[in-house]
Amino acid sequence: MMRGELKISGATSSSGPATSYVIREKSNSGGSQNGDSVCAVCGDGIAKLHYGVLACYGCKGFFRRTLTGKYRYACRFGNNCIVDKFHRNSCRYCRFQRCIQAGMDPKAVRPDRDQTGKQKVPRIKKSKLMRNY
DNA sequence: AATCAAGGCCAG
DNA sequence: CTGGCCTTGATT
Fold first, then answer.
1. Class of the CATH-defined domain A58-107
2. Is A2's pLDDT higher than 60?
3. Does any strand B atom come closer than 7 Å to the Cβ of A121?
4. What global pTM score does this model have?
5. What are A68-84's pLDDT values in tens digits?
6. What integer pLDDT is reported at residue A3 of this predicted model?
7. Which of A18, A59, A125, A131 would give a disulfide with A55, using CB separation of 3.0 to 4.6 Å?
8. What UniProt keywords are attached to this protein's entry (predicted)?
9. Nearest nucleotide to A119 by CA–C1' distance?
10. Helix or strand or coil: residue A109?
11. What pairs with residue A24 in β-bridges?
């Protein structure tokens, strides 16, 4: 899908701790008003606030799916697998930990602002997808 | 009304 | 199973 063949141009930041992702504050007071943030988990370019942390759609769906499905991932190693934008899909267990480590709250899955029992979402989805079948 | 945030479904 | 977008609802 989006498997962009991203290529690190040599860069290889000398002392580049892969575990250090600089999350820019969105306190745009006349500066970068762009919504291009980086995922705190995989480091994707397109990420937005989700579950309390900057996460991309992939991590969002994965996180939700993991919590709701309560999947049982197991890393054959310890848990120090390199989780980058390239290896994120390799180890689900490590990726999940990455989400938690990023600061994603499992409790934010449902009660976003108020638990008045809202969002029933009938989901009509009349004509949008399924063009001419 | 506009924006943000989460849920869910679909396409590959 | 992964990833993107739409839908929904509340909040500002």
1. alpha beta
2. no
3. yes
4. 0.68
5. 887 888 888 877 786 66
6. 53
7. A59
8. DNA-binding, Metal-binding, Nucleus, Receptor, Transcription, Transcription regulation, Zinc, Zinc-finger
9. C9
10. helix
11. none
